[in-house]
Amino acid sequence: MNILLIGSGGREHAIAAKIAASKKCSQLYIAPGNAGTTECGTNVNLKVDDFEGIGKFVVDNDVKMVVVGPEAPLVAGIADFFASKEQLRNIMVIGPRADGARLEGSKDFAKQFMQRHRIPTAAYKTFNKSTLKEGQKFLTTLKPPFVLKADGLAAGKGVLIIEKLKEAQKELKAMLEEEKFGAASSNVVIEEYLSGIELSVFVLTDGKHYKILPSAKDYKRIGEGDTGLNTGGMGSVSPVPFADKAFMQKVEQRIVAPTVKGLQKENINYKGFIFVGLMAVTGADGSLDPYVIEYNVRMGDPETESVFPRIKSDVVELFEAVWNGNLNTATLSIDERTAACVMLTAEGYPESYRKGDAINGLEKVKEGIIFHAGTKMNDKGKILTNGGRVLCVTSMADNLPAALLKSLQMAETIKWKGRYYRHDIGQDLLKRIIEN
Length: 436
Ligand code: AMP
Ligand code: GLY
Hints:
Blueprint: E1 2-7, H1 10-20, E2 27-32, E3 42-43, H2 51-60, E4 63-68, H3 71-75, H4 78-84, E5 92-94, H5 98-105, H6 107-116, E6 124-128, H7 132-140, E7 146-150, E8 159-162, H8 165-176, E9 187-191, E10 197-205, E11 210-212, E12 217-218, E13 221-223, E14 227-230, E15 235-238, H9 245-265, E16 272-282, E17 288-296, H10 304-307, H11 315-324, E18 338-345, E19 369-372, E20 375-377, E21 383-385, E22 389-397, H12 400-413, H13 427-435
Helix pairs in contact: 5-6, 7-8
Bound molecules: adenosine monophosphate and glycine.
The site of glycine has 6 residues, from loops.
């Protein structure tokens, strides 16, 4: 069948590679894609929010399945758009409708959902402009640091963690009264700070059954030792060594199963990925307990670049089972090896960065996988930087140090003016293994 993948990042390149490898895929289109996705299929010049254009393309090109990479079109209702049109109703859309996408689109909805279904998460309260004073008072009842979250989508920037009470109160005012994050911060969730170690777990669900994909950890800050400005993600590893069987059992029992059941109970027909951002907190008995920090309604980036290479099953078969509601009959088989991904970024990122630099050394990489993110090809076929996160390299090995070493060697081989990467991806996990 013909398949259309929506998106243009490293995540989409990693998903495209698996779709292209499926025996069920005849032609893969990627809208808009990047220079790397052309290795897997045909790029189509359509914007991810151009639902009319996407619908027309699907009809004209006999596309039977649409896989949605990023959250914005999901929150904006791309799946509902397809369901509402006679000609598009039967197209298999992998990604939730807008009602399910609220899990990511509204932090307040997500928190209320977790409360309704008794899913472990930080205690919280939500405030708006008219309750600013109450919000500032509520802050005085909490211990620092203070966690303020814009309710809506804020391109990953809507969470503030602040040490000083006065500053937190000032920021709350800026978010609510001055719309610091635009309409996204017209409601603000204030929540209890959880101290622990973060990781992500990914779930594929047909709305009733689910498969838990491998765990992963990403590295959000620009600087080594996880310092400096927040980024889209500077690297990832999968699996997360401390997310052992006992921990994953807690994740399934306390979080994944009640989440899928909760969606069903609330008549939310959810078909797609759920990305559960978790904090592993040390409990009274010394073991790790998972708490939900956030839900996303898509795969993570750059987590996908270490999770997807480990999927051995045919992903298109899994997606068909998602659409048909029989995911319980499908098999998910996972490569036991560890995958490590290192992101290479443009000079200046995550602030204003250089663009259009020639990327050299790609042909010298003989082992491992290169996933493109912000790249484009010029008229002469030369690949140029075209984004802050330019590309990432993923290696697989029997253990984490070996996978990391291979990826760092690959990263060093690929060069452009001002290219940057973190050398310490995964080091915190190795340290933890040694210490325990
Ligand atoms: P979010 O967009 O909700 O994932 O938040 C962004 C980042 O803020 C997370 O990746 C965490 O590092 C941090 N964070 C969010 N909520 C909390 C919390 N309740 N306690 C501690 N850290 C948090
Ligand atoms: N890596 C975090 C995200 O995709 O939101």
